[in-house]
Design a protein that fits this description.
The structure is a homodimer. Chain A is mostly helical. Helix content of chain A is 68%, strand content 4%. In chain A, helix 5 runs antiparallel to helix 6. Chain A is globular, with a radius of gyration of 19 Å. Chain A binds a DNA duplex through helix 1 and helix 3. Chains A, B: This is GntR family transcriptional regulator.
DNA sequence: AGTACAATTCTTGTATATTAGTTTAAGTGA
DNA sequence: TCACTTAAACTAATATACAAGAATTGTACT
């Protein structure tokens, strides 16, 4: 599935991306190939080639002869990402309703239980992963894993925002798990109108609470011309 | 817009991609970094880094220590690409209908005339580009250029198929231009139901005539388990 | 004290050499 | 003739060296 191949390059790619996504490298921060190369104890070439991939996901920006920088989160792109996902996922869910199998049912139910457990334990990153898994399962059911991976590629900005929000506002988790369960029930009952409504509502929620997150991490975000004209 | 940067790497990227898209390098063919490096009179490093980008678009596949190969067209991925585009573009067009400006009108009308001209002159690549431009204009109108570029990234398989088809079946061009004009008229008239219908029909046509194209270029395509169980 | 300039340092871009794995084919034995 | 082994040739993977530009810092001059 992943086109990053053999060992060292993939290692570098995974590690660097992990650090960006989990905000160990923070938006705006300057990193350098040599820095990482010593930090990861690798030559500069695999680092460089990993960075090319990551650049394409718009998680870093490399300015020649100057430096490599972690990009700030672009809320405009996050909106576009949501738009795309809102266009696709309702169709995915409607189709999934007609294809549900016992195995998938079991997986989803396990996932839902895990979500509730994790929500109580206050582990934002685990919760994020479970949330992702939940949605992904329906794509798999439709044999649309390719589409899912495309979405992930394009939704880096949106996903960074979501991770940040989970860190900040933990009360939100209850709402999300509850919605997930309602969606699952609607799919089981093949209640098409309800599925469509719930999914749209649910996905729309992804970009809620912008204000809270923006206040908590103001310099993690790119300044767009429209927002914040004080 | 493009994240390919400075001169040499971008040169390499553009040239290699051009040759793949226009089938100068044909699907299945083995290429090698050294070969291209001498062919383009460049060092191996920029080539290599360009190839990493192209690999991500699934136009080539690199097998470590063995070789780099032009991928065959994956019709399953093409279908998924169409699915995504069918999900998005109707919404784009509906929104565009409410935002039409005189300048965009002029551009589209120019484009339509060019299409008709090019269709007569039998220039498949030019026609493909005009077709692309036509659709892109509506995305721009909605400030959704980002979405358009995502789609292009994911639709390489579909686009290669479309280019091939234009080479093969030239009678199709009349149908396409006619549909484009109908779509434009519907947008101008803000006839939402018609827009929705026409766009879905039009996009669905993208993968028509699989048989003809497959017969003409059988070994350009990946063998998927479902097709051709003779 | 402030500004302009120059040199040093740091960064990525590119080329080349080395390494390691894969493939191919030749060669050897039965 | 065939199966197996082995070596040679080719490929991408990685490391390293060098070049060119950007940024910073220090210094001299106003």
């Amino acid at each position: 599935m992943d086109n990053t191949r053999d060992n060292m390059r993939k290692d570098a790619y995974d590690q660097i991306k992990y650090r960006i996504i989990h905000f160990e490298y923070i938006p705006g921060q300057k990193i350098s190939e040599k820095l990482i190369s010593t930090e990861l104890n690798l030559g500069r070439t695999p680092i460089r080639e990993a960075l090319i991939r990551i650049e394409r996901e718009e998680l870093i920006e490399v300015i020649p002869q100057s430096g490599t920088y972690i990009t700030r989160i672009d809320l405009q792109e996050a909106e576009d990402g949501r738009f795309v996902r809102e266009s696709i996922e309702p169709r995915i869910m409607l189709q999934a309703a007609t294809m549900m199998t016992p195995e998938t049912k079991a997986k989803i139910q396990d996932n839902l239980k895990e979500q509730e457990k994790t929500a109580k334990l206050n582990q934002p990153d685990s919760f994020f992963d479970l949330d992702q898994d939940f949605h992904h399962l329906f794509y798999s059911l439709d044999n649309k894993d390719t589409v899912w991976s495309w979405l992930q590629m394009n939704n880096t900005q949106l996903n960074r925002f979501r991770r940040l929000r989970l860190k900040e506002t933990d009360l939100n988790w209850q709402t999300l798990t509850k919605q997930h369960r309602l969606i699952y029930d609607a799919v089981i009952n093949k209640d098409l109108d309800t599925i469509d409504y719930l999914i749209k509502e649910h996905l729309h929620l992804m970009l809620e609470e912008k204000g809270t997150v923006l206040n908590a991490y103001p310099d993690y975000f790119k300044v767009n011309d429209d927002d914040q004209v004080s």
